[in-house]
């Protein structure tokens, strides 16, 4: 047995505008119930529970949700369906409960996965033992 298999992995801190963060946020939304307001902090908590080796700060999740909202507006020319609204207890995310949302979120996951693969491929091509690129 390889002794390295038992080494713990270091935690990963999610970064805004990272495809690795984006794929996790969009995939979580794809599996969440829709049709009501959910606090952004609750979405961050759900991400932290689902990915115990990652840390998702609420501000990073909010940034990813704003990007998704922008993508929604770009695709449908309306904010109806994907909305972020300020509320007394924090920002609320409202996702419409429709097949349109499911299909769109699936495409967002797929786009983020492609971006992840491209970033990993780029890293693999430029990685050097000395760390210089």
List the SSEs and their pairings:
Layout (H helix, E strand, L loop, with lengths): L11 E2 L5 H13 L5 E3 H11 L3 E2 L2 H19 L5 E4 L6 E4 L3 H28 L7
Parallel strand pairs: 1-3
Antiparallel strand pairs: 2-5, 4-5
Helix pairs in contact: 1-3, 1-4
Report on this structure.
The strands form two sheets. The protein has a three-stranded antiparallel β-sheet. The chain has a two-stranded parallel ribbon with strand order 1-3. The protein has one domain: Arc Repressor Mutant, subunit A (Orthogonal Bundle), CATH 1.10.10. A hairpin with a 6-residue loop joins strand 4 and strand 5. The N and C termini lie far apart (34 Å). It contains four helices and five strands; from the N terminus they run βαβαβαββα. It is mostly helical and 133 residues long.
Short description, anyone?
This protein is mostly helical and 133 residues long.
Q: Tell me the strand order in the biggest sheet.
A: 2-5-4
Order of helices and strands: EHEHEHEEH
CATH topology: Arc Repressor Mutant, subunit A
Number of strands: 5
Radius of gyration: 17 Å
